[in-house]
Specification:
Elements (H helix, E strand, L loop, with lengths): L9 E7 L1 H6 L29 E8 L4 E7 L2
Antiparallel strand pairs: 1-3, 2-3
Amino acid sequence: MIRVAKSGTKVIIVDETEKLIESTYKKTPITKDYYQTGERIGAPLEFIPNEMQNIACNEICKGLMYCLTFRKP
């Protein structure tokens, strides 16, 4: 997304948190095998390049999702 975004663009990433994975996906027959690796699921803050601006990450939907936002300089 960063590569194709114009300068000044706000990037928004919304995805599920560990809380949603534990409460739903690990209990659903179709998805439970996929989430048995023990890998932690969360906002990918470590992959945001240092030059990005206004980085913010908030839990939404009663902690079931996160909203990660930042602006490309």
